[in-house]
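Input/output pair, single chain:
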Amino acid sequence: MTLLIAEDDPALALFLGRAFEADGCRVRVVSDGVKAVEVFRDEVPDLTILDLNLPKKDGESALDEMRQLNADRPILVLTGRTDLQSRVRCIEHGADDLLQKPFSMVELRARCGALLRRRTSVNALLKIEDLEVDRMSRAVKRGGNAVELTNKEFALLEQLMLNRGACLSRSELLQRIWKSETTQTTNIVDVYVNYLRRKLDDRPPGSIIRTIHGRGYMITSSSGLQAGFQAAD
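Output:
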């Protein structure tokens, strides 16, 4: 799952980012409201954790713009404000939940999990023929058999499945999946595609993950594969 954290306290942002990455999430951390809206628009995260006291654009304004962009993706507001009016405004403007600082990480995880379980997005389970990717449990099956993937392998397959029919360049995949590893080169993408192909038994080569020479990679339904979506229970 993809998580956006908008928090201007560097120590708290680092703590939250590491905690959710350890849970297997792909995390994008930003420190101001303008960047938060930009990332929300471009990457459409599965869940957003939004602080109210952000520079450049405050959290309430960012929340309004996010809801104009997408009314369905869950947004949890973090705030140190104690006044009832601020809390009510956030709910009225589209926040799915609100947690006051200081907070317990156990409670934050529980609230995030509840928001994700309540979400009825059709993208919870991605299927193409006999390949299934469950984004909630992070489980992958091919022909009914479980496929064990590392976090990076899962993130790569997830991106390709979400963008099926569209070619993703190596640089796009590098930025989306290895964004915190700026020393990596685009060769790492090729390496991980090969890992995926081997684990998914992608034979003949390219039957699942297709190489678009000079451009990148894609998963397509053009070779008789039928793409479908199901909602998580």
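Confidence is low (pLDDT under 50) at residues 222-233. The chain has two domains: 2-118, 125-230.
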